[in-house]
Amino acid sequence: MTSALALRLILLFLHIAFAALWLGPPLGLTKTVARGLASGQESLRLAVIELKFRGMLATIGGFGVFVTGFALIFAGGGFSKFGPQFHAAIGLVTLAIANSFFFRPLSARVAAAAENYTDANRADAARAIRRMTIHSNVQHLFWTASLVLMLWPR
Ligand code: HEM
Description:
The protein is an all-alpha fold. It has one domain. It has helices at residues 3-23, 29-38, 41-75, 84-100, 103-115, 119-151. The structure holds protoporphyrin IX containing FE. The site of protoporphyrin IX containing FE (HEM) has 22 residues, from helix 1, helix 3, helix 4 and helix 6. Protoporphyrin IX containing FE (HEM) is lined by residues 8, 12, 15-16, 19, 65-66, 69-70, 72-73, 76, 82, 86, 89-90, 93, 143, 146-147, 150-151.
């Protein structure tokens, strides 16, 4: 095996591992947080820790997919060697990164309710969790569409 091929294989392995890290940790996460909110302040505190940790894993995954995706393009001979589906995937992942910026302010609203468990904060946290669910579904839609593009016949 040539070293160029070995490099592409290692990058592809990392690329797919990062894609899994982006998809997996957020699955069911907003449901966990909603259950935490319904179960009392201590549960919500734990759910917020879970939210931040799994959110961080997904961020590392998304960033890793982006970087290894570009590395694969350059290791494979540049943009001219890869069809439009890879360019479209870059567009989708860029949109996913833009969509991810909604999460921080929304999770801050949930964290505020965990610290200060008033009726008003809890109602606001419930609204924030609903918004988070929508943005999370959008992320998974971008993820799935990117996977279809990756597997599209070249
Ligand atoms: C910035 C966005 C992305 C870029 C530039 C990119 C780039 C690439 C490239 C160039 C390859 C082919 C490697 C080769 O044959 O040498 C590849 C393969 C692959 N990518 Fe991506 N990718 C991106 C996003 C994603 C995402 C979001 C996922 C997961 C949903 C993903 C999953 C895969 C898979 C499963 C393969 C293997 C496909 C196969 O070999 O048939 N990629 N990617």
